[in-house]
Amino acid sequence: MIKIQQNTLYGEAAARIRDMINEGLLLPGARIPEKRLCEQFGISRTPLREALKVLASEGMVELLPNRGARVMRLTRQTLEETYSVMGALEGLSGELACRYITEEEVADIQALHYQMMAHYKRKEIRPYFEFNQRIHDAIMLASRNEVLRETHSSLSYRIQRVRYSTNMIDEYWKQAVADHEAMIDCLLDRDGERLGNILREHLRHKLVVAAASGVIDDDRAASS
């Protein structure tokens, strides 16, 4: 593993650990192996612990008094509450994007969509997910609302690992692709109301599939 440069330290360490959680290398409820990560990243405990504080603020890890940290478990209640807010934010982003988006931005999103579809056809999960996320980010950017973007970003970290896991299920994957095809049509037609509804429903699909795929812990297990 490539070591972290000294001028980025805790920020890059947080990004690395975030990726490890999203990719399932650190499982829900697992203790964060601080000593091993320090060795892998080539950093001391101080920036690593600062990174863990950042991740705790994002709801990705839980800090344990005098016992380090562990990956936060995702309960149905937590996800339902988070998806409810995220759905409202993404729905609003779609409505605003259709009001303000330029032809160039629509073309850029179409290009991202074509690249995402190429990875979908080859069943390449990681790059598919990356382009999928870039499309959602581009729609959010086109909303021209910085407060909306910041609020959405602060919540999205919490559920990225669910998005990544559920995209591996064929039934959901087909539905997600169909949703994205419809999103492109809405952007071309500047149909903000329909795009907002699709984005809200898109998140509801994710919650249903996450529950079916075993990604979510039950509330009693998460509290232990």
Concise summary:
This protein has 224 residues and is mainly alpha-helical.
Describe the structure.
One of its GO terms (molecular function) is DNA-binding transcription factor activity. It comes from Salinicola corii. The protein contains 10 helices and 2 strands. The protein is mainly α and 224 residues long. The protein folds into 2 domains: 9-71, Orthogonal Bundle (Arc Repressor Mutant, subunit A), CATH 1.10.10; 76-213, GntR ligand-binding domain-like (Four Helix Bundle (Hemerythrin (Met), subunit A), Up-down Bundle), CATH 1.20.120. It has a two-stranded antiparallel ribbon with strand order 1-2. Helix 4 packs across helix 6 (125-142) and helix 8 (170-189) packs antiparallel against helix 9 (192-213). It starts with 8 loop residues before the first helix and ends with a helix. The mean pLDDT is 89.
Chain-wise SSE layout:
Layout: H1 9-22, H2 34-41, H3 45-57, E1 61-64, E2 68-71, H4 76-100, H5 103-121, H6 125-142, H7 146-166, H8 170-189, H9 192-213, H10 219-222
Antiparallel strand pairs: 1-2
Helix pairs in contact: 1-3, 4-6, 4-7, 4-9, 5-6, 5-8, 6-7, 7-9, 8-9
CATH topology (fold) name of the largest domain = Four Helix Bundle (Hemerythrin (Met), subunit A)
The CATH architecture category of the largest domain equals Up-down Bundle
Shape designation: globular
What is the CATH class name of the largest domain? Mainly Alpha
Give the structural class.
mainly alpha
Number of domains: 2
Distance separating the two termini: 33 Å
Helix content: over 70%
CATH superfamily of the largest domain: GntR ligand-binding domain-like
Radius of gyration: 18 Å
Stretches where pLDDT is under 50 for at least 5 consecutive residues are none
The count of strands amounts to: 2
Q: Biggest sheet, open or closed, and with what strands and sense?
A: 2 strands, antiparallel
